[in-house]
């Protein structure tokens, strides 16, 4: 269902985990937008963790089979504050998913609760398993009597 994600983002994440470093100038930006993706019945569900992001600061775009999620975590303090510790990343970040042809991208539903953006993408009718009837004349069969 999910074709692929950004391999460079994953490589950067793994590098940061192994060496405990980050790319210069990017430590204040989120390296990833954590997600879970799974199939539930007749839907493909994708959940993104977006703690501290207002609902109006999230943009969803789809072009062909590419879904782009863009979010902005804005400061919660005023300009007259002298920050002592700032570990919560701020700014704009995004993630792209390449969706397979088996998904109905015309009917995506989005819900945002408790810092989690949940997308429900229906499985396309053409991709659902279906039974194929076999035509043939039952009357053409001859009964064999013993």
UniProtKB/TrEMBL annotation:
Pfam families, A to Z: HSP20
Matching Gene3D superfamilies: 2.60.40.790
Lineage: Bacteria, Bacillati, Actinomycetota, Actinomycetes, Pseudonocardiales
PANTHER family: HEAT-SHOCK PROTEIN 20 FAMILY MEMBER
Source species: Amycolatopsis orientalis
Family: Belongs to the small heat shock protein (HSP20) family.
Identification of the protein by name: Heat-shock protein Hsp20
Domain SHSP: 26-137
CDD domains the UniProt entry points to: ACD_sHsps-like
Domain of life: Bacteria
């Amino acid at each position: 269902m999910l074709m692929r994600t950004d391999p460079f983002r994953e490589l950067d994440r793994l590098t940061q985990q192994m060496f405990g470093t980050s790319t210069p100038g990017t430590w204040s930006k989120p390296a990833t937008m954590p997600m879970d993706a799974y199939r539930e019945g007749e839907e493909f569900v994708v959940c993104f963790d977006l703690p501290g992001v207002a609902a109006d600061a999230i943009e969803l775009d789809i072009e062909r089979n590419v879904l782009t999620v863009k979010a902005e975590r804005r400061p919660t303090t005023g300009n007259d504050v002298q920050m002592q510790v700032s570990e919560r990343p701020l700014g704009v970040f995004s993630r792209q998913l390449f969706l397979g042809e088996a998904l109905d991208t015309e009917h995506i539903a989005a819900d945002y609760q408790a810092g989690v953006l949940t997308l429900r993408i229906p499985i396309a009718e053409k991709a659902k398993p279906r039974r194929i009837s076999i035509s043939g004349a039952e009357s053409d069969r001859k009964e064999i009597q013993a």
